[in-house]
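Dear support,

We are seeing what looks like truncated structure output for some complexes. This example has two components. We would appreciate it if you could run it in full and send us the complete token output so we can diff it against ours.
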Amino acid sequence: MNFDFTDDQQAIKRTARDLLADRFKPDTVRELAEAERYDDAHWTEIAELGWAGIAIDEAHGGQGLGTVELAILAEELGYTVAPAPFLSNAAGGLAIQHAGSDAQRERLLPGIASGEARATAGLLRGGAAALVPDADSAAAIVLLRAPGANGAAPGSGVVLDPADCEIEPLATIDQTRRYARVTPREGAGEPLGGDVGPALHRIATVVSAEIVGVAQRTLEMAVDYARDRQQFGRPIGAYQGVSHRCADMLREVESARSTVLWAAWAADAEPETLPLAASMAKALASDAGWNVTASALQVHGGIGFTWEHDLHFLLKRAKVDGALFGTAGEHRERVAALSGLG
Amino acid sequence: MDLTLSPNEQAFRDELRGWLADNHPGEEPSGDEAAWEFRLAWQRKLHEQGYAGLSWPEEFGGRGATLIEQAIFGEEMARAKAASPANVLGLVMGGPVVIAHGSEEQKRRYLEPILSGEEIWCQGFSEPESGSDLASLKTKAVKDGDEWVVTGQKVWTTFAHHAKWCMLVARSDFDAPKHQGLTYFLMDMEQEAVQVRPLRQITGEEEFNELFIEEARIPEENVVGGVGNGWAVAITTLMHERAGLGAASAASVKIALGQLIELARERGVADDPIVRQKVAALLIEAEALRLNAWRGLTQIMKTGIPGPEGSLPKLQWSAVNQGLTELAVAIQGEDGLLRESDWTYRFLRARANSIEGGTTEILKNIIAERVLNLPRLR
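Here is the complete output from our reference environment:
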């Protein structure tokens, strides 16, 4: 039993933390978010570092590392709320790698791993995917239909050329990332070769990891503020109304982190545990993301409600991430179905 | 990162599981005396196998188990629904304190009878006026020749009527700052000056006692860790009380959640969306509790210092146990209000979970001050 990162994983985390702190300074994030765009130079650098293909097989041009390493990067990118198409491309890569056919892997994974032909993935309900990150700029769009929780209905997936889809850009509250509604044309695209479950569970895990990073950042901001801000002659963090709120935020962040790490580990080492672990992680992280960022805003008081303060970028990212690849309520329902409630 | 047990840990668990399968004491009998005899017999059996002083070093008759092995032990005992041994306070708190702070003579004198269950221990910390603010306690110890004379009142003392020794913290210096004037004593319970009165709790049972101490005599060689060091010594016992409990408590709520799911099915509400959401939320919180506990143990083993997640299991456990018993009572409708139901008992008993062993509010203070480094209110 060793519930901690290896030295290599620690090194990935440290490198990412340092580099991202420099590349995605709050002013840079603000500028990109307000302009609703990404900086291509950021993506080029992320791809050159090998991050775009971190969990993709070496045979297909990736680093051949696991979901744990991918989750480490997702958390760190979340921590800086980086405007970059990393998560969407990672989701597209997981979908092809774990649900695609050999031919689809060979065709698509090299471009995903090198970052030169990005993919994205979305959750298909009815005839459309309502919230697909970076669909307007991806070279390939993978839409996944979740299987019924108890095998009632099989899942399915399709790889689409963006030209075969209606892509409607959405003005969501999260301006640090582009989202679109995607409606594939009737009969368009190529079905995925394999079972979509393992891909969906991994994607949910990685989105959850990003939320942990976002929540961690706002927890730190709230604690720093509570130490500095004085009212009634004391730092507000000395009052239990504030300090207990911060303790609750820590509980939510650490619980989400433990559960996400468990799910990421299961994806790599104990796949039979993954469906339950991934849904537990996404349920917990989705709720923690909102509760913690909203709590951080409350600790900041009025200043946290202003556009000038950076908190709202994190709060909005956490809220939208909470809905990506299944809400907390949907994942709790899966947990119930997997736990003997039928 | 590896969340599986190492070959050694696996071997420890398999051996324990096998032994438990052959030696499980069965269900605890009803009736106080019968239950007590049962627990004494269970302790002797555990001791014969070397499981009594699991965490104690081998030189003192223990097994020198790692933290992970202690957690596995707790998990397996919870999973097997095996009763606690009679002298649990001596094993978990008293022995470790004597080992850490006691003199050689004290180690020779006290440790073996704790393991065998020959001498039962109880704890005299809390007082009617000193609960969360333990260091404000007022029980008075005055030196008289080579003895201390102790007068005061203690409360929430488990097993006081069976105990030979009381781990007693008393104020030996009223002029010193409150944390520095305390001394840790081993008080002989078999004297007229110590009166035990059972405390009836909201479940109707009498699990705890009050101690009325009127000029009790304690020889000076029964001071542990030196006069005036009582606070530091007492803190060691509290840390021992909390370490490794997380994994065991996670295992026991997991069993309870299985029973809750059973109940939901029996009562025909397993497909009610609200019940499903609530059960799932509890299952997830229980899993997070288990994972936080194991992550915390890894941190302690690596660095010697508990990580931030290690401080969470106690308050998470109390919330999950309260939540699941509340849901079980709600699922039963009017039947849930009947005293005869086991769920109703557990529902009432769970109210103490967020108070005993550190209130949720105190635990949040600790997290805020020591983990998040927020300023102190005081």
